[in-house]
Design goal:
Blueprint lengths: L2 H18 L10 H6 L4 H4 L14 E4 L6 H14 L4 E2 L29 E2 L7 H7 L5 E6 L2 H11 L5 H4 L6 H6 L1 H4 L13 H5 L11 H14 L2 E4 L3 H12 L13 E2 L11 H8 L1 H21 L1 H23 L7 E2 L19 E3 L16 H7 L3 H19 L6 H4 L26
Parallel strand pairs: 1-3, 1-4, 2-3, 4-5
Antiparallel strand pairs: 6-8, 7-8
Helix pairs in contact: 4-17, 6-13, 12-15, 14-15
Bound molecules: 2-acetamido-2-deoxy-beta-D-glucopyranose (NAG) (5 copies).
Protein name: Galactose-3-O-sulfotransferase 3
Pfam family, one: Gal-3-0_sulfotr
Subcellular location: Golgi apparatus membrane
Length: 439
């Protein structure tokens, strides 16, 4: 038999056995799927050792604004808990972000959450500072979203926080885009939500002219050099296929529910010339997006469309099973914050004009699926950013105290690596970063 036929047979066998064994689906490993996409074996493991490579556990995820990044953060938090990893978290004075929009600094990191394996809370990137904090084998990942849709989202989410938007008569997106310079002040607090937000989050100069081709090229190159993967929100599941391979993770490690969504009534369709105007106003972000969307599709093309589509299907099916186990049925209904009984699951609301929806767990969650998943797994799956960050900080501080009891003199001999010799109190963050989770 030719190699191709052998693969086809293996695919058939693994598919059938998966279907037969779907009772144990949450403990799948992906070995069977690796076989079904032979090209993958050469992508990250030249020796062909796909399937038995250790999971990669040092990850810096640069969380950008309004890009589905909260969903990725939730996935990383859950991964960290399952694997006993340490997540670098902000000191309390920074709230649950690293004192955004200040450029990232090691002083913003709670010293008892280092040495860190994973970092994923909002920050404005400072590459050198982040490199100093994280292990040197860290994989850097970020996510971008199509600029028009993203700007519409920012405009609605921050309509009360961002002065550039608050000045606009009738909260009209059209009015803003017709004469942005009448409302926008580059140096003003929160101006980063009103122009080239992605560029700003990634450490760039949001007000640089797009005519400055050398700057744009240089910045794109820098992002390219820093990040091993730039995910694209519009192709979220496809991006996860690449992420899973990059990190050698199992399928169950990339299961998620969408978090921090707006109600349909808070969204609007962009017609007419709006998308073009938004791209022109956010031209640096547009350049970034086009570059990295093209590169995402080149990488997906290298895997093969059939292989990617198959894995996306399997991922969605597995998510369906997890959802059924947690909620006792199909996808849980999204609820407004007021309807959610469990306050740990209520998402933060940016203003009365925007509804952010979340999920509630049925009281008998987890029993629904014959106890295959615990209530804890289900709760964490739908827990909003602010509550999960707090909870993780609490549990890591407890763990730290257990490892370094206060009276133990060794605590002073073994200070956490990353914060050696650094002043630990963080500057007081000012401004709305205190109250806006800005996911
Ligand atoms: C994580 O730590 C707990 C408690 O120390 C231990 O029981 C568990 O086996 C550990 N899990 C992993 C994946 O290391
Ligand atoms: C990473 O750091 C360790 C110790 O700090 C060092 O021994 C190792 O060579 C470094 N690896 C790389 C690839 O720089
Ligand atoms: C704002 O809305 C009012 C009433 O709907 C309208 O008369 C006015 O022209 C609007 N202003 C702008 C600048 O669109
Ligand atoms: C992303 O790139 C793909 C492939 O080139 C293209 O088909 C798609 O339209 C792009 N998406 C967006 C939103 O620009
Ligand atoms: C969970 O509780 C709801 C309401 O009490 C009930 O309708 C549903 O059948 C229960 N599901 C399971 C699997 O017990």
């Amino acid at each position: 038999m030719s190699q191709k036929k052998i693969f086809l047979v293996l695919v058939a066998i693994s598919t059938v056995s998966l279907l037969l064994h779907h009772g144990g689906h949450l403990s799948w490993t992906m070995e069977a799927f690796s076989l079904s996409c032979p090209a993958l074996r050469f992508l990250h493991s030249p020796l062909g050792a796909a399937g038995n490579k250790a999971k990669h556990t040092s990850i810096a995820f640069l969380k950008t604004h309004k890009t589905a990044s909260t969903t990725v953060q939730n996935m990383l938090f859950r991964f960290a808990e399952r694997h006993n990893l340490t997540v670098a978290l902000p000191v309390q004075t920074c709230d649950h972000q690293f004192c955004y929009p200040h450029p990232f600094s090691g002083r913003f990191v709670h010293p008892h959450t280092t040495p860190a394996d994973i970092i994923t809370s909002h920050m404005r990137l400072d590459r050198a500072e982040l490199r100093r904090l994280m292990p040197n084998d860290t994989t850097y990942v970020t996510i971008l979203r199509e600029p028009a849709a993203m700007f519409e989202s920012l405009f609605s989410y921050y309509n009360q926080h961002c002065l550039s938007f608050r000045r606009v008569p009738n909260g009209s997106l059209e009015a803003f885009l017709d004469r942005p310079w009448s409302y926008y002040r580059p140096e003003e607090k929160d101006s980063m939500y009103a122009r080239n937000t992605l560029t700003f989050d990634l450490g760039g100069d949001k007000d640089r002219s797009a005519q400055d081709a050398a700057y744009v090229r240089g910045f794109v190159d820098e992002v390219e050099r820093t990040f091993s993967l730039v995910m694209i929100a519009e192709y979220f599941d496809e991006s996860l296929v690449l992420l899973r391979r990059l990190l050698a993770w199992d399928l169950e490690d990339v299961l998620y529910l969408k978090l921090n969504m707006r109600t349909p009534a808070s969204k609007r369709a962009l017609g007419g010339g709006l998308p073009a105007k938004i791209r022109a106003w956010n031209s640096l972000d547009a350049a970034l997006y086009d570059h990295f969307n093209a590169s995402l599709w080149r990488q997906l093309g290298a895997l093969g469309a059939a292989c990617v589509a198959r894995e996306v299907r399997l991922m969605r099916r597995a998510r369906g099973w997890l959802v059924r186990d947690c909620f006792g049925g199909p996808l849980p209904l999204v609820r407004s914050a007021a309807q959610i009984k469990n306050k740990d699951l209520r998402p933060w609301q940016p203003s009365t004009n925007v509804g952010i929806v979340g999920y509630d767990l049925p009281p008998n969650a987890s029993r629904a699926g014959d106890g295959r998943v615990t209530q804890d797994v289900c709760t964490k799956l739908v827990m909003p950013e602010v509550q999960y960050s707090r909870l993780l900080l609490r549990s890591q501080l407890l763990r730290y105290r257990r490892s370094y009891p206060p009276r133990n003199p060794r605590a002073h001999q073994n200070p956490p690596r990353a914060n050696q010799g650094r002043p630990s109190p963080a500057p007081r963050a000012s401004g709305p970063s205190q109250r806006a989770p800005s996911p």
